[in-house]
């Protein structure tokens, strides 16, 4: 036990004496959280669009005004003929052109129907879809209001309530995922080099002839990082609460314990990578290349899981980040208790144990 | 020239003999390309609805039918209490709930007005906002139909004007998002190879001490740098070509533009990223430090490049910073050339910017590099 204590102290010294890494370690998550909290969102805001108004009457101007004042769009140019549409798209700054047909108001008055064509640059399909949806929503809204001005004999009043996020803030959707991404990448990256570094620098021999058991070496390697990562988790939670205004509806203690669990999972995943590779370069590349994209794409962070093909949904459900994001959303935004997240918690716990056991098994006590 | 050749040979030999490195460079990116491309759609398919019908009248059923028939909504559950419907929302079984109160039909006919409640899970604000616009439209139409039915079309005071909004999607009419994701993921993979590997390679020699051996040879600084960067430059371009072939064959992405331009742009872009990698390796002492700094910049570059979430959604100050983000420029260029067939006249401002980046970054990086320990 005494030698184990000594080993842990040695590990602490190792980390604290490398000031540069330490600085990166603490500053990086905070900066990323701040930046990504603002940047990662799919809200449409001031998107540059062009208007092609063939009719130029009262109603088309009214609709144009509605689009311009919605806050979603900024009309950067008015175009006068069909060929210009192609031209503005190819220059790449304008993403959408709204085309009003000839004699718009006249047709609407006489036939009761008129058409608006929304042309989007779908080389970025997701943005195009979003823009088209927003524009359609504005037009629908305009139509509903115009028609509602008449006094109706039988009126259905609908009351709409936005649960969990009454102001429809984009950050509510993306901050939990950002937390998961930063925690798992930083933690896994940290521990993924620890053991392989000793191998590469030749100091592994010293550890192997010491009386330490493999499990002691592994736990001793993880322990200091748990402490460090908790500092990171705290700062990330504080930022999301105070800067981005995410409420913590549920229990703070529960939220914090779940973060701790997720940190342990990520650290043991890193250790597992470390015991399975033989150079720092390979270890770090695996934790970057193999972890980064799946964490961003296959976790429900940005892209909804239910839209994916079934086989990808299965992969998503193997990805531990998926569960952490669900847990964070449940506790922070919906305010549900442990009962609603016990399954997810159990899965995270299982993964942690699995990674630790695998690392101990993979840990070689002989030199090659 | 001969020196460069020898260094290159050494680098390629080293790469080839590293058995665990090769699969990471070639196989992992390919697997990711094949898998991840299928995932990345934000397209809203069906907004799921939980219906709580406490009225059970013909009117309420008709209204439910309207939602059932709409292509935007999918009814996942019928409940008998608001609580149950709320639970559906909480458990993510439904995006929204429509609560039809008791005596809905009676109130509508007798009192001339009736109330209705719509609840949304607004954590995903986009789905909630757009869903409520669609729901409003359905309700309006339903309301008008009811009026015509009860009062008769002839003396109905409500004449409805319909504006039809038709969306057309250019350059990608089938809304095949894979067309967008293939270039996006290729950009990420090429970036990782270009920036990360070059940076780590030099720091590795520092950490292992082998850089001293090179420092005492007559190899010139510039030869050494070229010898270190060129292999990864070639590998990255090869990966790009390979990835495009896979994209063309498997995901049927259109290649509208000129491939020559594309590779020229990619070549310049890689120089920028390698220059940044070289700068990092000058600053870092250990591979861990190099990796951390590289990771820090790379993830910022990537998240702000418009690959996953649109650049237009970012706040203005972030868009200004983004002017310095080479990944964002390259992402835009590759999309313009590949999918829209933009010609040199269309994209030259962006391209010139990349060239300027390359010159600045490489000059700084090379002048910072010291042949000393």
Outline the structure in words.
The complex is a heterodimer of chains A (368) and B (373). Chain A has 15 helices and five strands. With 368 residues, chain A is of the alpha/beta class. Chain A has two domains: 2-40 and 170-362, no CATH class; 47-148, abc type-2 transporter like domain (abc type-2 transporter like fold). The longest helix of chain A is centred in the middle third of the chain and has 30 residues, at 214-243. Chain A is elongated, with a radius of gyration of 27 Å. By secondary structure, chain B is α/β, with parallel strands linked by helices. Chain B has two domains: 2-40 and 175-368, no CATH class; 47-151, abc type-2 transporter like domain (abc type-2 transporter like fold, 3-Layer(aba) Sandwich), CATH 3.40.1710.10. Helices cover 65% and strands 10% of the residues of chain B. Chain B has helices at residues 2-17, 21-36, 58-69, 82-90, 104-111, 125-151, 178-208, 211-215, 221-250, 259-283, 287-303, 316-322, 326-340, 344-368; strands spanning 47-53, 73-79, 96-100, 113-121, 162-170. A four-stranded mixed β-sheet of chain B has the order 2-1-3-4, sandwiched between helices. In chain B, α2 (21-36) packs antiparallel against α7 (178-208). Chain B is elongated and about 100 Å long. Chains A and B meet through α2, α4, β4, α6 and β5 of A and α2, α4, β4, α6 and β5 of B. β5 of chain A pairs parallel with β4 (113-121) of chain B.
